[in-house]
Amino acid sequence: MSDYSALFDFIRSRFPGQSFIPLHAPVFYGNERAYVLDAIDSTYVSSVGEYVNRFERMMAEITGIAHAVAIVNGTCALHLALKLAGVAPGDEVLTQPMSFVATANAIAQCGADPVFVDVERATLGMDPDALETLLAEDAERRDGGAYSRASGKRYAACVPMHTFGLPCRIERIAAICAQYSIPLVEDAAEALGSTSSGRSAGSFGQLGVFSFNGNKVATCGGGGAILTNDEALAKRAKHLSTTAKVPHPYLFDHTDVAYNYRMPNLNAALACAQLEQLPEFLANKRALAAAYAAFCQENGIAYVAEPQGTSANFWLNAIVTDGLEARDALLVAANGAGIQMRPAWGLLHRQPMYRHCRKGPLDTAVFLADRLVNLPSSVVPPSPQRA
Ligand SMILES: *Cc1c(COP(=O)(O)O)cnc(C)c1O
Fold it and tell me: What is the distance in A from the centroid of ligand 1 to the CA of 75?
C-alpha cells in the first residue's frame, strides 16, 4: 500500500467536519455535566462519596465480577493488584513486551523484575504457547509455587494484557498459570467491555485491572479499578488504597504502610455517566471497526480482526503494514494530513530500565512493533453534538 489517499478519505468520511482527527478523543454527551455538578454541590469531591460507591457497583455489574474497588488510575490499580497477588521484592513477573510502560512499571514498583514472553499475531496479546514453553523449560515447582531455574527467583505472577481491547487467549493462559500455581493478574486497562467466551476481560485471574484515563473507552479524567471475585482481596484492596486507616469517626490509626490510591468522588461522578453509555459506546465502536475491516479487505490492507470466540471493545483499531519503512511513511503522511495515527509502544524489553530483564524469544513482538499502526478510533459523536 503506497497510496494512502483512499484510506485518508475513508477516515475523513467517518469523522466528518473535523480538521484534525485524533486517535481517540473522549465524548461527553450523557449525564457527565449533571453528575459532576452534583458532586460539587454535595461537597463530597474527594475520597468518599456516593459516586464512588455507585461506580464500584456499576463496574461489578458490567464485568460480572463480584467486587470492584475504585482506584485513582490504572497504573496504581495494577501496582496494588500485584501487591495483593503477593508480588514482593526479588520476585519475577511474567508479562508481554508489547504493552504500555505502566505494565512493567507496576511490576518494578513492587521490587520485582518483569520477564518478557512473546505476543501472538492474531490477538497481539501474550502467546500461551510461548508462556508454556518458557515455563516447561525453566520453571521448577516447589514451596507451593514456581521458581526459575535460570534466576532462582519466584514467578510471583503473570500479567497478560488485552492489547487495544482485543482479548488475548486468556483461558489457556489461566490454565497454564493454574498448572504452575502462578497468580494471574489481568491488565485489562484497555479492555473494558471486552469478553472471551462471554466472560469479561479481567475476570479470569485473581485480580483484574481497568483504566479510565482520558484516551480509554470510558474515561473519568484519570481513574482505575481493581476487580476480584475474592472478597478478602477486595477488602484488602480498599484498605490499602485508603491509607490502611482503622475505621473510626476521629482517630487516625493505621495498620500498614499503605497508599493514597483512592478515586476522588468528582472523578467517580464522571465515570458513572460514562459507564451509563458504555453499551452505546461499544456499539458505536463496533460499527466503526466493521467499516474499517470491510475497507481494509477491499483495499488489501491487513486489518487486525477480532479474535475468534471473543467480543472486543475495539478500543483502538490496528493494521499491520509491510515493514518499518511502510509504517513510517504512513505515519508521516497521516499525521501530516491531520489524521492522528501512531505505532505500537516501544517494546518494553528495549526500554533502558528493562533491558536487563530476562525474556523468551520475542520475534512476533519485534515483527509487530515494526509494522503496527493504530487508526483513529473515537466514538463518533451524534450530530449535532449535544456537549
Ligand atoms: C492505560 C493503561 C494502563 C494505565 O492506566 P492509567 O490509568 O493511564 O494509569 C496500564 N496498562 C495499559 C496496558 C494501559 O493501556
Answer: 6
Instruction: Break the chain into its structural domains and give their ranges.
Output: 5-22+278-375, 32-276
187 lines ligand 1 (CB under 6 A): yes
Cβ pair 209, 227 in contact under 8 A = yes
C-beta of residue 14 within 8 angstroms of C-beta of residue 245:
no
CATH 3.90.1150.10: does it fit domain 5-22+278-375?
Answer: yes
55 lines ligand 1 (CB under 6 A): no
Query: What's the CA-to-centroid distance between 101 and ligand 1, angstroms?
Result: 8
From the alpha carbon of 75, which atom of ligand 1 is closest? 9
Q: What are the angstrom distances between the C-alpha of 243 and each of 91, 137, 254, 345?
A: 25, 41, 7, 33
Q: What is the atom index within ligand 1 of the atom nearest the CA of 78?
A: 10
Which atom of ligand 1 is found nearest the CA of 215?
1
Pocket test for ligand 1, best of 23, 72, 73, 75 (most atoms within 8 A of CB): 75
Query: pTM (2 decimals)?
Result: 0.97
Separation of CA 234 from chain center: 19
Cell (9 digits) for 100: 504500555
Domain 32-276 in this protein, CATH class:
alpha beta
Mind listing the pLDDT tens digit of every residue in the chain (387 residues)? 557 899 999 999 999 999 999 999 999 999 999 999 999 999 989 988 999 999 999 999 999 999 999 999 999 999 999 999 999 999 999 999 999 999 999 999 999 999 999 999 999 999 999 999 999 999 999 999 999 999 999 999 999 999 999 999 999 999 999 999 999 999 999 999 999 999 999 999 999 999 999 999 999 999 999 999 999 999 999 999 999 999 999 999 999 999 999 999 999 999 999 999 999 999 999 999 999 999 999 999 999 999 999 999 999 999 999 999 999 999 999 999 999 999 999 999 999 999 999 999 999 999 999 999 999 999 987 665 444
CB atoms within 10 A of CB 62: 18
- Ligand 1, residue 99: give the atom nearest the CA: 13
